[in-house]
Design goal:
With 266 residues, the protein is an alpha+beta fold. The chain folds into three domains: 56 residues, N-terminal domain of TfIIb; 57 residues, no CATH class; 120 residues, no CATH class. 27% of the residues lie in helices and 27% in strands. It contains six helices and 13 strands. The strands form two sheets. A seven-stranded mixed β-sheet has the order 7-8-11-10-9-12-13, covered by helices on one side. The protein has a six-stranded antiparallel β-sheet with strand order 1-2-3-4-5-6. A hairpin with a 4-residue loop joins strand 3 and strand 4. Helix 1 packs antiparallel against helix 2. The structure holds zinc ion (ZN). The site of zinc ion has 7 residues, from loops.
């Protein structure tokens, strides 16, 4: 009996909620105080239903064959995840495809036919990617950890912008450490920057990565600027000077050897 069925919402191509019932898609028609009336998405069909809270009532007949429900769920899940996640789109597609049973995979739209629609969904919630470093302007949640604590330490410069990330606890650990270790990684670096530069410190028997910086190049001036900004940050936030006895680096530039080289901090 229809009165006992729970409502199943899916996301439409325009990002609106629709009710899927036995393969028939319904769009919102009239919203009342106690219930919502829905009508079939096909304008030539008089199929209707009503939802009261999470329960479906008053279902009427449709004059056409139903949709493939599995396909509707597949498309809806992709639209929803495209809006809510930053996972690469092709990975999302393959992920949802792997959730289907074997006899359903052949009926799904191939990725190229729906990728542009999915990117449009993503642009609703995720800003367009900047084309230059000077366009990068991190705000709000993009400057915080997943649990909402401040994580962006500073954004310095324009075309030569340095971004540095770390928590207050990281700065405290940095300050308390006698030796700092610094090195860069290049393969995992976002396209606009040249390297991810990571500052580690030893705490007890373990060495932890504490500060993560995006650097525009591998020049000595840039490493010096990063260190100076970091010292300013420690001084401002902790009201103490950052003065390790030794900094060990492994940086690359045209005039420096690749091998690690202990360096005085002064
Ligand atoms: Zn219908």
């Amino acid at each position: 009996m229809a009165g006992l069925r729970n409502v199943e919402f899916v996301m439409s191509q325009r990002g609106k909620p629709q009710v899927l019932f036995d393969g028939y898609l319904h769009t919102k028609n009239v919203e009342r105080l106690t219930c919502v009336h829905w009508k079939c998405v096909k304008s030539t069909c008089s199929g209707r239903l009503t939802t009261v809270g999470t329960v479906i009532r008053n279902v009427t007949e449709h004059n056409h064959v139903p949709e493939d429900s599995q396909k509707v769920w597949f498309m809806s899940a992709l639209r929803k995840r495209a809006r809510e996640e930053s996972t690469p789109m092709h990975t999302l597609y393959n992920d949802e495809l792997s959730n289907l049973n074997n006899d359903g995979t052949g009926m799904k739209p191939p990725f190229p036919t729906m990728s542009s629609a999915l990117f449009r969904h993503r642009q609703k919630t995720i800003p367009v990617l900047p084309q230059t470093r000077s366009e990068v302007d991190l705000q709000d949640s993009w400057t915080q950890t997943a649990d909402g604590r401040p994580f962006l330490l500073f954004a310095d410069g324009d075309d030569d912008k340095i971004l540095a990330f770390g928590s207050l606890e990281s700065l405290g650990a940095l300050w308390s450490s006698e030796i700092l270790y610094m090195n860069g990684t290049f393969t995992a670096c976002p396209g606009l920057w040249n390297q991810v530069y990571i500052i580690h410190a030893r705490l007890g028997a373990t060495t932890y990565p504490l500060i993560f910086a995006l650097l525009p190049d591998r020049q000595t001036d840039t490493y010096s600027r990063l260190l100076r900004l970091l010292k300013d940050e420690v001084q401002q936030r902790l009201n103490r000077p950052l003065a390790p006895s030794c900094i060990q680096t492994d940086f690359q530039n045209p005039t420096q050897p690749r091998s690690p080289s202990p360096t005085s901090s002064d």
